[in-house]
Amino acid sequence: MNKPASAAFVAHLDLLWQEVSLDVLREKYAKGAERELDGPEMARAVRLRVARALAAVEEEPARWEPVFLEALERGFIPGGRINSAAGAEIREVTLINCFVQPVGDSISETVDGKPGIYIALREAAETMRRGGGVGYDFSAIRPKGARVRGTDSSASGPISYMHVFDQSCATVESAGARRGAQMGVLRCDHPDILDFISAKREAGRLNNFNISVGVTDAFMAAVAEDALFELVHKAEPSPARIAGGAHQREDGLWVYATVKAREVWRVVMRNTYEAAEPGVLFLDRINAENNLHYAERIEATNPCGEIPIPDHGCCCLGSINLTRFILDPFTPEARFDAEGFAATVGVAIRMLDNVLTATVWPLPQQAAEAANKRRVGLGFTGLGDALIQMGLRYDTEAARAAAADWTRAMRDAAYHASVALAREKGAFPLFDASKLLASGMARRLPGEIRDEIAAHGLRNSHLLSIAPTGTISLAFADNASNGIEPAYSWFYTRKKREADGSMREYRVEDHAWRLWRARRGNDAALPEAFVNALEISARDHMAMQAAIQPFICAAISKTVNVPEDYPFEEFETLYLEAWRAGLKGITTYRPNSVLGSVLSVEKEAPRDLDESDPERRIRITDAPNVALQALRWPHRPKLSAGSPSWTYMIEAPSNRFAVFVGHVENGAPQPFEVWVNGEQTPRGLGALAKNLSMDMRAQDRAWLAAKLDSLAKTPGAPYSVPMPPDGRVLPVAGNVSAFAQVVRWRCEALGLFDGPEGETPLVDAMFSRKEPKSGVDGTLSWTVDILNPATGDDFAMFVKECVLPDGSKRPYSVWLSGAYPLEFNGLTRSLSLDMRVIDPAWIGKKLRGLKDLPEAKGDFFARVPGSEKQAVQPSTIAYVARLLIHRFGMLGILDPDGYPLAGGARLWTDAPAPGAAVETPGKVCPECGHAAVVRRDGCDFCTACGYTGACG
Description:
Its cofactor is adenosylcob(III)alamin. The chain is α+β, with helices and mostly antiparallel strands. The protein contains 29 helices and 38 strands. The chain is globular, with a radius of gyration of 30 Å.
């Protein structure tokens, strides 16, 4: 290791330190007198402290301290906890970033080797208090509605206990003034999986958790085949659940429900598409690849997902800065310093192995687990920038080949180093050569390394993992691109709150961008290799992960960035491709709301676009005549003698509500209204029933049928429910779907759809029967953010618009993204069909019926549309209706009360000007207070001030 510094290493020393690097280094990693030094000296002091602390466990500390320090200076960056606490005066703080803790199916006893819930809660709190994040698999906890024999009651389910863990995490401050991070996992076959998938959709819930679904190959095969799938648990259901159809299989497990796998998968995908969670873990792939497949079962990961680990397992992390090993960057002679890299990898493995000896363990079970397996996770950072320095675009086959070669080199050097350590210090106690070498990962090792392992053993059961490196990359790598990721942006402005409350701004720049400017000057054009995360296709993001996964024995933290207009069907296919490609998991991030967002590109043939205007909209080339007198009754008929109605109770897993369909018997029975009732009626269904009642009073059976058919396909949380007329249990896509199918059955029973179709004035008056689709150039939408603190609704509403033959602009679709009841999707789907009726009186009447709709305890203050004043809004849905009326008013279609404007002026769009900055809403930033925290490179990142979360 004692060799001259490479040319690449020397070149990086020429750059002056960025303020962001100094700030993060001083605030998160430097201790005591170290904070008083300037940038290079402060970094060296931290590295010297770490090198000395890790060398102290060697038989010859004086020999190893300079070797360790040189590795740190050359680009090895230990995990955040190591840099922060190794050799510091804080005696009880762990050097380990994250753990997985078991949770059993009991309140206070150990069951099947897993501690009871409140024992696990205490152990997690102790772990977080000492600085570690925690992941859990909650699948052992019996589902909601399971029998509790001891108290003769029904279980409340794992999600109810997750809230307890969430509050504990919010209360316990981790060492170093850092809040604990948590990962919650639930298996895809757990009976409460549908509630788990959408558990974070309600604002303010499980804020201290990332969540992931543990997916099996059997489930994915059922998705691919559109087959049924059983939700099972070993816990006995309650008598009520058994009476409802729960039964026991031959293997002893209880089947709580049978669902269509593809519908469950679609709910996972829809939530991930709209809210970036849950993530997906491919459990069977994880365990098949596991070096210790013979000694453990992995059920969960650490909070950022790069380390699948068993109960009480830990992630002992470090990363090597690849940009330090590019020789002659930005030149035709650019090349990778393979010899220097391999040498640094070898020393890094030794240092991480020493961490396991030097650290304080929060729990004795964690110490025993680490001693038996000595699991470490070495990875790299700066991949995106290193490829740029080599002249390679991240999204090319050449870049993937280079990344694979570097990762293979890291693997080989790491395994050679661990074999050498085994010869010197002994193999990990659970080592079994024949069984380890039969694992999926070990079978791909070169024959030479396999022979060495068989002859001498391994010091560490696992060696490699690629973690997010948010703050360590900022502090120690000049803001090199994070982990495996490409650069997110070349520069941004960071706002930092000072002690006196003032805000200071300074520029944060990407390392490769700085190095290019330092070499070529500020006026030099960026080469083609400079491509950032948002310019790379989703599949190319995933392809990079797939290229290097075969060489990593743990996993990879990778965020597949997809644009807001990415079609849902392609998004869903992306995850299927990830499974087929052999990935261990996949995480995506799609912005929830961006002003001026473009229309999703789908597989149907595109409509013509207005290419003459940069504010392009879909252009409708032909429109029908205006439909008048389409209503049989403009208002609810006054029936002095009353009217008959039919009632059906929908028994959903989380809700129980009644559907009423009223009809008149003047000649043929005619349904004219529908409503819902019950204490558990989902929010939004009442408004949908009000909207649908007007459709029932129309003289157009085809229109009503189209509405009901569309609503029956509305995605939600799928379940199986008894349906009329005989109580046969059928799968439905969610509450809206169940509601629509019940209403459709009643209308058919009344004979509404019997006989000739008759006149279809509303269908004939639609300027587009199917939703118009854009081409690849997209189209504009009007967007507004809606927040109701009373109910926790926090979402963006998007209104898509087109140009009619007369040149007027018309909204034709509305949809939502964010935290809101899924039943709202039924109302927006219904209103989108209403918008496509050419006569604006139709949508105007629908919106007038909703604009004053109250909700108990759901009123809130918000800005009056078109005004700077604030006023009480009766409900979230009422506010949605008022905003839509306002948009129709801006386009000269409706007046402020929702009535048509004959010949009114057409107004321009309020889309942002070309080049204007876009705003991405998110969680509230703890540093600057703006609601601007998004997921970037696997970490929390504030788009307003540059704050980076706990990663690294």
